[in-house]
Amino acid sequence: LLLLIFFCCFELAIVHLFQLTAKTQYIIEACFMALTYYSFKKRPKWHWKLTSIIAVDFLILFLCGFLTYRLAAWVQLPIPFDAPTAMTFFMLIIFAPIWEELLYRGALVEVLSRAFTQKYAFWINCLLFSLGHLVAVFLVPAEFRIFVYYQALYTFALAWWLNRKREKLISLNFVMVDHFAFNLGFALALSQLL
């Protein structure tokens, strides 16, 4: 429970109060993951048995990511990303799926499942994943905050999908692939490559 309190306090309150950067937020999250994995003496589970379901999920999540961006553009939300740079692509497609899944579906699931029933842990995890993205409201200029609220909504839905996948497969790598697919669709829509 102390680990959960640590996570919530630093993710939401401290980032806002001290106007911390995203880099500082990643350091705080790394400390949380290290403490959790050390405290519970657990390592993330990895399984690589490919099935057609994985390919179908990949396509579904890719399309969801693509359409999520297109919807934001269609309703003319001011989007805080312009043409993606190499760093934006790296952060969105490689770093975020690995980092966020180790954090939310890895370390945080361990903490939540010990503090709450499975049902509550599932929904709290969805909420925390969404709130973890909502923290950006303190980091972006005011004109982009509406997009951050939109992002909080679609990340809640994404967390629901990823949590279900983790519960079914008890493996982080497939969840990372789904997260990668969503972000890839989003990034390709952003870059206008499709």
Account of the 3D structure:
The protein has helices spanning 2-17, 22-40, 52-74, 86-115, 118-134, 145-169, 172-191. It has 194 residues and is mainly α. It starts with a helix and ends with a helix. The model has no long low-confidence stretch (mean pLDDT 80).
What proportion of the residues is helical, as a percent range?
over 70%
* Proportion of residues in extended strands: under 5%
Topology, number of strands: 0
Order of helices and strands: HHHHHHH
Any idea what the shape is? globular
Q: What is the structural class? A: mainly alpha
Q: Biggest sheet: strands, sense, closure?
A: none
Rg computed from alpha carbons, rounded to a whole number of angstroms: 16 Å
Q: Give the termini separation.
A: 45 Å
How many H/I helices? Answer: 7
Residue windows where pLDDT falls under 50 for at least 5 positions: none
